[in-house]
Amino acid sequence: MSLNITTDKKYIISSIILFVFIVILVKLFMLQIVEQSYKMSASNNVLRYIPQYPARGLIYDRNGELIVCNQAAYDLMVIKNEVKAFDTTEFASILGITKEQIKASFLQIKRVKGYSPYKPSVFLKQISAQTYAVLQEKMYKFPGFDVHPRTLRTYPFNMAGHLLGYVGEVDEDIIAKSPYYQLGDYIGINGLEKSYEKELRGKKGINIYMVDVHNRIKGSYEEGRYDTAAVVGKDLVCTIDAKLQLYGEKLMTNKIGSIVAIEPKTGEVLAMISSPSYDPELLVGRDRTTNYKALQSDTLKPIFNRSLMAPYPPGSTFKIVNGLIGLQEGVVFPTTHYGCAGGYPIGRGVGCHIHQSPLSFLQAIQMSCNTYFCYVFRSIIDKPLYGSVENGFSVWKKHVESFGFGGRLGIDLPNEQRGSVPSVNFYDRYFRKGGWSSLTIISLSIGQGELGSTPLQIANLSSIIANRGYYYSPHVIKEIKGTTGIDPKYNIKHTTTIDSTWFTNVVEGMDMAVNGGSGGTALNAALPNIRICGKTGTAQNPHGEDHSVFIAFAPKDDPKIAIAVYIENAGFGGTWASPIASLMIEKYLTDSISRPDLEKYILNAILLDRHARKK
User: Which CATH number does 242-277+305-614 carry?
Assistant: First the structure.
């Protein structure tokens, strides 16, 4: 019996030893034969990973014109431990730098986080293709140096710097947020380059090389089995019309302000001009940092995107909104007449220009009567049905916000500002609860006071009128090539709280302002073969001369373009903003200009001196 027990124990122990031995063999087989990635991980100390940078996607305008493309550039790399004595004078001459800069570069690379004398470091960024061609022939004279290809942006039209944005090198904060990026990588910093970074950047590839104990490349690892190819970025089709954008920037030379043009039926932005602007080529290459600092210190703020960020008062263009709210709330009708004797006579009063009196609703829009819309505004706020000024104001505010004011419209560009529409709480804090009335805030009736709007929001208002009550969120990308489409939110129709039937009256009033003969405030915007509907605005400016404002759309019965023009410190809307809008409309719809004298008048106008006087 004891003999059998002893035999069984031997079998059990032998089986356990055999099982463990088989497990070890299987594991060794997996590690050494099947799972080569473990072998690669163990070999990391003798491998060098060289990133392969893809070309960024191209950007086209709505008509297929290439507006952003790539040019070849090269980063000069150095492995400090492989550098031998070389002719610094010749080296500096080839690169177009000084010998002092060569010394400074060697010192700088030692300060970079993760520096190793056995690994490549960036010695000089973004040398041109011409410089590379000369250098390549003489690389044998400069051991330890190598060149990695990159691409830089270039702009065939040199336009739309604010909209397109620019590309810059990543910093440690960006790297911490996204492991995709490493020191030396580039990323979209602003504009479309930032909004569509993931689509434009593509995907980096990797080449893996075997290196010896001195970190010298000895060949491709595993014959390139683990290399990955770079994937080129996706191309974008922009909604911008390059010809219209260029023409708008030309018209805005020596002027401060913005033009935004939108296709009403789609929300596609046709042009977005912020002036003064800048040549986007200034923010490309090694001089980008120097040029950016110069632009940033310019007192005219050329890098400030006024189209999306400037909080202008809407001025008299806002009378349209108050008029529509009054029609919707039943406190005014197209046949309602009010007299005007040079201003609104109640309280401190609101002045008005001289025109015929009394006026109907349509005539009040045509002649931009302040008095008329003061009556309309107070009738909305003080409507007995609401019981209090606070309730009446809340109803008014809800209507206003349905036009996109006081919030972001959601354009596919960074840094869009909300603008401002005051609230009951704001006035309660400012005046005290119960300490304000419709007369206290009467300036809202003519688009002044606490209202703030961006040119994009005002252009969107023009789109809403053109569409008779709805809009699509403005956007600047029409197509991302190789994908199913743009963000679905840009296909959502946003409807205002105003019944569409009331918009006909406003459209007729805007038609009269341009084409109605005597009394119209925008007669110089009229075209013989295109029916333009428009509304002037003179936005009061406490810091200097008033801003010239104009909104319009055309053609009247089948609108294809809606536009807003702001010219800072330029006075009446009919003086500068309306002719600029009219020229833009004609250029877009006919690709020609029938009024060369008017065009010359605008092109020769220098309005910067008004800004200087303000300062």
Answer: 3.40.710.10
